[in-house]
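Escalated from tier 1: zinc ion holo job.
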Amino acid sequence: MKYIPPKFSKLSEMAAIDVGRLTEDEARTILEGIRWPKGIFCPHCGSKKVTRIEAKSEKVRDGVIQCNDCKGQFTVTVGTIMQRSHITLRQWVQAFYSICSHKKGVSALQLQRNLGLHTYRAAWHLTHRIRTAMKQEPLAGLLKGIVEVDETYIGGKPRKGNGRRNKRGRGTEKTPVMDLIERKGNAISKPIEKVNAETLKGAIREMVDKKSTIMTDEWKAYRGIGSEFLGGHGIVNHGLGEYVSGDISTNTAESYFALPKHGVHGTFHHVSKHHLFRYCDEFSFRWNFRKVSDGERATQAIKGIEGKRLLLKERGE
Ligand SMILES: [Zn+2]
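Tier 2 regenerated the structure:
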Protein backbone atom coordinates (compact mmCIF):
# COMPACT_ATOMS: atom_id res chain seq x y z
CA MET A 1 0.00 0.00 0.00
CA LYS A 2 1.29 3.40 -0.93
CA TYR A 3 1.87 5.67 2.04
CA ILE A 4 0.32 9.08 1.79
CA PRO A 5 1.54 11.43 4.51
CA PRO A 6 -1.29 13.16 6.37
CA LYS A 7 -1.93 16.85 5.84
CA PHE A 8 -1.40 18.67 9.10
CA SER A 9 -4.16 21.04 9.95
CA LYS A 10 -5.49 20.81 13.49
CA LEU A 11 -3.87 19.20 16.50
CA SER A 12 -7.32 18.18 17.70
CA GLU A 13 -7.60 15.78 14.75
CA MET A 14 -4.11 14.32 14.99
CA ALA A 15 -2.99 10.92 16.24
CA ALA A 16 0.18 10.38 18.28
CA ILE A 17 2.09 8.97 15.30
CA ASP A 18 1.52 12.19 13.35
CA VAL A 19 2.34 14.46 16.27
CA GLY A 20 5.66 12.60 16.47
CA ARG A 21 6.45 13.58 12.87
CA LEU A 22 5.82 17.31 13.19
CA THR A 23 8.50 19.64 11.92
CA GLU A 24 9.42 22.76 13.88
CA ASP A 25 7.51 24.96 11.41
CA GLU A 26 4.40 22.77 11.60
CA ALA A 27 4.53 22.82 15.40
CA ARG A 28 4.77 26.62 15.31
CA THR A 29 1.76 26.86 12.99
CA ILE A 30 -0.22 24.63 15.37
CA LEU A 31 0.74 26.66 18.45
CA GLU A 32 0.03 30.00 16.74
CA GLY A 33 -3.35 28.71 15.61
CA ILE A 34 -4.30 27.68 19.14
CA ARG A 35 -2.97 30.83 20.79
CA TRP A 36 -4.40 33.24 18.21
CA PRO A 37 -7.49 31.55 16.74
CA LYS A 38 -8.79 34.89 15.38
CA GLY A 39 -5.46 36.04 13.98
CA ILE A 40 -2.13 37.02 15.49
CA PHE A 41 -2.03 40.06 17.73
CA CYS A 42 0.83 41.76 19.54
CA PRO A 43 1.17 40.53 23.15
CA HIS A 44 2.74 43.89 24.08
CA CYS A 45 0.09 46.34 22.83
CA GLY A 46 -2.71 44.20 21.38
CA SER A 47 -2.37 45.53 17.81
CA LYS A 48 -3.43 43.20 15.02
CA LYS A 49 -1.13 44.95 12.53
CA VAL A 50 1.82 42.62 12.56
CA THR A 51 4.49 41.53 10.08
CA ARG A 52 6.24 38.20 10.01
CA ILE A 53 10.01 38.58 9.80
CA GLU A 54 11.16 36.21 7.10
CA ALA A 55 14.90 36.54 7.46
CA LYS A 56 17.22 34.04 5.92
CA SER A 57 20.08 35.03 8.25
CA GLU A 58 20.92 32.53 10.96
CA LYS A 59 21.08 35.38 13.46
CA VAL A 60 17.32 35.93 13.25
CA ARG A 61 15.25 33.48 15.24
CA ASP A 62 12.54 31.53 13.44
CA GLY A 63 8.98 32.62 13.97
CA VAL A 64 9.70 36.24 14.88
CA ILE A 65 6.78 38.60 14.34
CA GLN A 66 7.02 42.38 14.49
CA CYS A 67 4.26 44.71 15.62
CA ASN A 68 3.67 47.53 13.16
CA ASP A 69 2.38 49.79 15.94
CA CYS A 70 4.66 49.43 18.96
CA LYS A 71 7.50 47.96 16.87
CA GLY A 72 7.93 45.27 19.49
CA GLN A 73 9.00 41.81 18.38
CA PHE A 74 7.61 38.54 19.65
CA THR A 75 7.15 34.85 18.95
CA VAL A 76 4.37 32.45 19.89
CA THR A 77 6.11 31.68 23.19
CA VAL A 78 6.29 35.28 24.46
CA GLY A 79 4.10 35.80 27.52
CA THR A 80 3.38 32.09 27.93
CA ILE A 81 4.65 29.27 30.10
CA MET A 82 6.92 28.36 27.15
CA GLN A 83 8.83 31.62 27.29
CA ARG A 84 12.61 31.41 27.74
CA SER A 85 12.67 27.68 27.30
CA HIS A 86 15.32 25.86 25.30
CA ILE A 87 12.90 23.17 24.31
CA THR A 88 11.89 23.14 20.65
CA LEU A 89 8.27 23.80 19.69
CA ARG A 90 7.83 20.30 18.30
CA GLN A 91 8.95 18.90 21.64
CA TRP A 92 6.46 21.16 23.41
CA VAL A 93 3.58 20.01 21.23
CA GLN A 94 4.60 16.37 21.66
CA ALA A 95 4.91 16.80 25.42
CA PHE A 96 1.44 18.34 25.68
CA TYR A 97 -0.02 15.58 23.53
CA SER A 98 1.72 12.85 25.46
CA ILE A 99 0.70 14.08 28.92
CA CYS A 100 -2.86 14.67 27.71
CA SER A 101 -3.26 11.24 26.17
CA HIS A 102 -2.03 9.08 29.05
CA LYS A 103 -4.73 8.56 31.63
CA LYS A 104 -2.26 8.34 34.51
CA GLY A 105 0.19 10.88 33.17
CA VAL A 106 3.78 10.55 32.02
CA SER A 107 6.80 10.76 34.31
CA ALA A 108 9.53 13.30 33.60
CA LEU A 109 11.98 10.45 33.05
CA GLN A 110 9.75 8.86 30.43
CA LEU A 111 9.27 12.20 28.72
CA GLN A 112 13.01 12.83 28.74
CA ARG A 113 13.52 9.56 26.85
CA ASN A 114 10.62 10.01 24.45
CA LEU A 115 11.52 13.56 23.49
CA GLY A 116 15.28 13.09 23.52
CA LEU A 117 15.83 15.82 26.09
CA HIS A 118 19.39 16.17 27.35
CA THR A 119 18.65 16.44 31.03
CA TYR A 120 16.12 15.12 33.49
CA ARG A 121 15.82 18.62 34.90
CA ALA A 122 14.65 20.00 31.55
CA ALA A 123 11.97 17.31 31.41
CA TRP A 124 10.96 17.98 35.00
CA HIS A 125 10.48 21.70 34.32
CA LEU A 126 8.63 20.90 31.11
CA THR A 127 6.10 18.70 32.92
CA HIS A 128 5.53 21.30 35.63
CA ARG A 129 4.99 24.04 33.06
CA ILE A 130 2.44 21.90 31.29
CA ARG A 131 0.66 21.29 34.62
CA THR A 132 0.56 25.05 35.10
CA ALA A 133 -1.18 25.36 31.71
CA MET A 134 -3.66 22.70 32.82
CA LYS A 135 -4.63 24.62 35.94
CA GLN A 136 -8.26 25.66 35.75
CA GLU A 137 -8.99 29.27 36.55
CA PRO A 138 -10.99 30.78 38.09
CA LEU A 139 -12.14 28.13 40.54
CA ALA A 140 -14.77 30.24 42.29
CA GLY A 141 -18.20 28.64 42.00
CA LEU A 142 -16.96 26.28 39.28
CA LEU A 143 -18.75 23.14 40.47
CA LYS A 144 -22.53 22.88 40.17
CA GLY A 145 -25.38 20.43 40.72
CA ILE A 146 -24.80 17.50 43.04
CA VAL A 147 -21.20 17.76 44.24
CA GLU A 148 -19.52 14.88 46.04
CA VAL A 149 -16.79 15.87 48.48
CA ASP A 150 -14.26 13.53 50.02
CA GLU A 151 -10.64 13.44 51.08
CA THR A 152 -7.91 11.07 49.96
CA TYR A 153 -4.41 10.73 51.32
CA ILE A 154 -1.35 10.62 49.11
CA GLY A 155 2.33 9.85 49.54
CA GLY A 156 4.42 9.38 52.63
CA LYS A 157 4.98 5.65 52.64
CA PRO A 158 5.34 4.23 56.17
CA ARG A 159 8.85 3.87 57.51
CA LYS A 160 9.83 0.29 57.88
CA GLY A 161 11.20 -1.30 61.00
CA ASN A 162 10.31 1.35 63.56
CA GLY A 163 7.42 -0.66 64.89
CA ARG A 164 4.84 2.00 64.12
CA ARG A 165 2.01 1.10 61.87
CA ASN A 166 1.01 3.54 59.21
CA LYS A 167 -2.37 4.95 60.02
CA ARG A 168 -4.85 5.19 57.22
CA GLY A 169 -7.27 7.95 56.45
CA ARG A 170 -7.90 10.85 58.77
CA GLY A 171 -5.11 11.23 61.27
CA THR A 172 -2.43 9.82 58.95
CA GLU A 173 0.83 11.63 58.17
CA LYS A 174 0.17 11.39 54.44
CA THR A 175 -0.81 14.54 52.59
CA PRO A 176 -4.56 15.09 52.56
CA VAL A 177 -6.10 15.95 49.22
CA MET A 178 -9.62 17.18 48.92
CA ASP A 179 -11.65 15.96 45.96
CA LEU A 180 -14.77 17.75 44.79
CA ILE A 181 -16.65 16.21 41.93
CA GLU A 182 -19.88 16.97 40.13
CA ARG A 183 -22.07 13.99 39.31
CA LYS A 184 -21.16 13.18 35.70
CA GLY A 185 -19.23 16.43 35.44
CA ASN A 186 -16.13 18.32 36.42
CA ALA A 187 -13.80 17.65 39.30
CA ILE A 188 -11.23 19.57 41.29
CA SER A 189 -8.59 18.13 43.59
CA LYS A 190 -6.42 20.18 45.87
CA PRO A 191 -4.03 19.38 48.68
CA ILE A 192 -5.06 20.84 52.01
CA GLU A 193 -2.97 21.78 55.02
CA LYS A 194 -5.27 20.41 57.67
CA VAL A 195 -8.26 18.15 57.59
CA ASN A 196 -10.62 20.15 59.74
CA ALA A 197 -14.01 21.78 59.41
CA GLU A 198 -12.55 25.20 58.65
CA THR A 199 -10.41 24.03 55.72
CA LEU A 200 -12.92 21.62 54.24
CA LYS A 201 -15.85 24.00 54.45
CA GLY A 202 -13.69 26.86 53.17
CA ALA A 203 -12.82 24.91 50.03
CA ILE A 204 -16.43 23.91 49.46
CA ARG A 205 -17.58 27.53 49.84
CA GLU A 206 -14.96 28.71 47.38
CA MET A 207 -15.41 26.18 44.61
CA VAL A 208 -19.05 25.14 44.68
CA ASP A 209 -21.95 27.19 43.32
CA LYS A 210 -24.45 28.17 46.03
CA LYS A 211 -27.37 26.46 44.27
CA SER A 212 -25.71 23.04 44.57
CA THR A 213 -26.25 20.04 46.82
CA ILE A 214 -23.23 18.90 48.83
CA MET A 215 -22.72 15.16 49.37
CA THR A 216 -20.19 14.03 51.97
CA ASP A 217 -19.75 11.14 54.34
CA GLU A 218 -20.99 11.34 57.90
CA TRP A 219 -17.82 12.92 59.31
CA LYS A 220 -18.57 15.71 61.76
CA ALA A 221 -16.27 18.26 60.09
CA TYR A 222 -18.83 18.60 57.30
CA ARG A 223 -21.79 19.17 59.60
CA GLY A 224 -23.73 22.36 59.01
CA ILE A 225 -22.49 23.01 55.47
CA GLY A 226 -25.97 22.27 54.09
CA SER A 227 -27.43 25.52 55.40
CA GLU A 228 -25.16 27.48 53.03
CA PHE A 229 -26.32 25.70 49.87
CA LEU A 230 -29.77 25.72 48.27
CA GLY A 231 -29.64 21.97 47.64
CA GLY A 232 -28.60 21.22 51.21
CA HIS A 233 -26.30 18.49 52.44
CA GLY A 234 -26.66 14.79 51.79
CA ILE A 235 -24.82 12.18 53.84
CA VAL A 236 -23.42 9.15 52.03
CA ASN A 237 -21.01 6.39 52.87
CA HIS A 238 -18.05 6.84 50.54
CA GLY A 239 -16.20 3.90 52.01
CA LEU A 240 -18.80 1.45 50.75
CA GLY A 241 -19.25 3.21 47.43
CA GLU A 242 -22.80 3.82 48.52
CA TYR A 243 -23.74 7.36 47.58
CA VAL A 244 -27.44 7.41 47.06
CA SER A 245 -29.43 4.22 46.82
CA GLY A 246 -30.43 3.43 43.29
CA ASP A 247 -28.08 5.95 41.69
CA ILE A 248 -25.56 4.15 39.53
CA SER A 249 -23.79 7.31 38.37
CA THR A 250 -21.87 7.43 41.61
CA ASN A 251 -19.39 4.99 40.11
CA THR A 252 -18.09 8.00 38.22
CA ALA A 253 -17.14 9.70 41.46
CA GLU A 254 -15.53 6.51 42.75
CA SER A 255 -13.37 6.17 39.66
CA TYR A 256 -12.29 9.80 39.90
CA PHE A 257 -11.29 9.47 43.56
CA ALA A 258 -9.02 6.59 42.64
CA LEU A 259 -7.21 8.44 39.84
CA PRO A 260 -4.81 10.87 41.54
CA LYS A 261 -4.00 8.31 44.20
CA HIS A 262 -3.09 5.53 41.80
CA GLY A 263 -1.47 7.91 39.35
CA VAL A 264 0.83 9.38 41.94
CA HIS A 265 1.85 5.96 43.20
CA GLY A 266 2.07 4.30 39.81
CA THR A 267 3.56 6.95 37.54
CA PHE A 268 5.20 9.53 39.77
CA HIS A 269 7.03 7.75 42.53
CA HIS A 270 8.35 10.75 44.37
CA VAL A 271 5.91 13.59 44.60
CA SER A 272 6.85 16.13 47.21
CA LYS A 273 4.15 17.71 49.30
CA HIS A 274 5.22 21.06 47.86
CA HIS A 275 4.43 20.07 44.26
CA LEU A 276 1.42 17.84 44.88
CA PHE A 277 -1.07 20.53 43.82
CA ARG A 278 0.41 20.45 40.30
CA TYR A 279 -0.34 16.75 39.95
CA CYS A 280 -3.83 17.38 41.27
CA ASP A 281 -4.32 20.05 38.58
CA GLU A 282 -3.15 17.57 35.96
CA PHE A 283 -5.49 14.79 37.08
CA SER A 284 -8.54 17.03 37.33
CA PHE A 285 -7.78 18.57 33.93
CA ARG A 286 -7.63 15.20 32.19
CA TRP A 287 -10.78 14.11 33.96
CA ASN A 288 -12.67 17.25 32.99
CA PHE A 289 -11.75 16.73 29.34
CA ARG A 290 -12.13 12.95 29.44
CA LYS A 291 -14.79 12.82 26.76
CA VAL A 292 -12.82 14.48 23.96
CA SER A 293 -10.07 13.12 21.68
CA ASP A 294 -6.43 13.14 22.78
CA GLY A 295 -5.70 15.87 20.26
CA GLU A 296 -8.57 18.03 21.47
CA ARG A 297 -7.48 17.54 25.10
CA ALA A 298 -3.95 18.64 24.14
CA THR A 299 -5.41 21.65 22.33
CA GLN A 300 -7.37 22.63 25.45
CA ALA A 301 -4.24 22.31 27.58
CA ILE A 302 -2.24 24.47 25.16
CA LYS A 303 -4.95 27.14 25.42
CA GLY A 304 -3.89 27.48 29.05
CA ILE A 305 -0.32 28.54 28.22
CA GLU A 306 -1.15 32.22 28.30
CA GLY A 307 -1.51 34.49 31.28
CA LYS A 308 -0.32 31.95 33.84
CA ARG A 309 2.31 33.00 36.26
CA LEU A 310 4.86 30.28 36.71
CA LEU A 311 5.76 30.06 40.36
CA LEU A 312 8.40 27.43 39.94
CA LYS A 313 11.60 28.01 41.81
CA GLU A 314 14.26 26.90 39.41
CA ARG A 315 16.20 24.59 41.64
CA GLY A 316 19.94 24.99 41.53
CA GLU A 317 19.78 28.06 39.33
ZN1 LIG B 1 2.56 46.03 19.67
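The mean pLDDT is 82.
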